[in-house]
Automatic annotation (TrEMBL):
<dbReference type="InterPro" id="IPR045851">
    <property type="entry name" value="AMP-bd_C_sf"/>
</dbReference>
<dbReference type="Pfam" id="PF00501">
    <property type="entry name" value="AMP-binding"/>
</dbReference>
<dbReference type="InterPro" id="IPR025110">
    <property type="entry name" value="AMP-bd_C"/>
</dbReference>
<dbReference type="InterPro" id="IPR042099">
    <property type="entry name" value="ANL_N_sf"/>
</dbReference>
<feature type="domain" description="AMP-binding enzyme C-terminal">
    <location>
        <begin position="188"/>
        <end position="264"/>
    </location>
</feature>
<dbReference type="Pfam" id="PF13193">
    <property type="entry name" value="AMP-binding_C"/>
</dbReference>
<protein>
    <recommendedName>
        <fullName>AMP-dependent synthetase/ligase domain-containing protein</fullName>
    </recommendedName>
</protein>
<feature type="domain" description="AMP-dependent synthetase/ligase">
    <location>
        <begin position="29"/>
        <end position="130"/>
    </location>
</feature>
<dbReference type="InterPro" id="IPR000873">
    <property type="entry name" value="AMP-dep_synth/lig_dom"/>
</dbReference>
Length: 281
């Protein structure tokens, strides 16, 4: 990036985090960079990302949202002092032409501030799945709202409109779990762990014993030596997370997290493994 004087990059959060972490840890400047666009995964503004953009001269970060079945449908511009950027930025405002709605289970609009399913209509929506008519009919439904035309794509993502018109992304419906009766979004727990200076990256999965006892397991990559102790991480997290959101075990990872063919973290592979008993707290 430095040698080729790259000015604009488009990449998912996992790649941005890796670049930011290594660029800052090894003091590798990228002075030409002016614009970065991230999409495909929920953006967490980690310490490495704050430091990376803090070293740049006026570079901006765009957080965009758009599932595979659509073009990008919303965007948020982050500029100014990265120290002031939120830990979990919103996905911004709908782009021109995107018809974005937050709907309940009956496909009726919910008021601002109420959580519902993020649904998209208009030019950004694709025509469906190739040779998968049943799945297409399930996910691409006739537009149910007055004045709406064409298909409405049900993303399966949870979100809500904020009073300022921005959309707050709250993760997948299958990423929301119940711990002792409380609803917990795994991405929020991950963001808090990634905000710790001693952690380079983290993934949280929910594991059930089969008798209604669901617990959180945190897998983390250390940010340096010595490797942070699970008990120390747990103690740090008690200052920013309520008790029911605290992982019950922490698993240090010496290598990269397993990936899907598309490059995203393979959460199913992590969930299938057994965490070492010694990491429990």
């Amino acid at each position: 990036m430095a040698e080729q004087r790259v000015m604009r990059i488009f990449l998912p959060f996992v790649a941005l985090q890796s670049i930011a972490f290594y660029a800052t840890a090894m003091d590798l400047p990228t002075p030409a960079l002016r614009e970065c666009i991230t999409a495909g995964e929920q953006l967490h503004v980690t310490p490495a990302i704050r430091e990376f953009f803090g070293r740049l001269d006026g570079a901006v970060l765009f957080n965009q949202y758009g599932p595979t079945e659509t073009h990008s449908v919303s965007s948020l511009r982050l500029d100014g002092d990265p120290a002031d950027w939120p830990l979990m930025p919103t996905i911004g405002y709908p782009i021109n032409g995107a018809d974005v709605h937050i709907l309940d289970e009956r496909l009726c609009p919910v008021p601002a501030g109420v959580v519902g399913e993020l649904c998209v209509a208009g030019p950004p929506v694709s025509k469906g799945y190739w040779e998968r008519p049943e799945l297409t009919a399930q996910k691409f439904v006739p537009h149910p709202l007055e004045g709406g035309t064409g298909a409405l794509y049900r993303t399966g993502d949870l979100a809500r409109y904020l009073p300022n018109g921005q959309i707050e992304f709250l993760g997948r419906r299958d990423g929301m779990v119940k711990i002792r009766g409380y609803r917990v979004e795994l991405g929020e727990v991950e963001a808090r762990i990634r905000s710790l200076r001693s952690v380079a990256d983290a993934v949280v999965v929910a594991r059930s014993s089969g008798v209604g006892d669901t617990r959180l397991i945190a897998y983390y990559r250390p940010g340096g030596q010595p490797v942070p102790d699970p008990a120390a991480l747990h103690k740090e997290l008690t200052t920013c997370l309520p008790d029911y959101m605290l992982p019950s075990a922490y698993v240090p990872m010496q290598h990269e997290f397993p990936r899907t063919p598309s490059g995203k973290i393979d959460r199913l592979a992590l969930a299938a493994g057994e965490p070492p008993a010694a990491t429990a707290v």
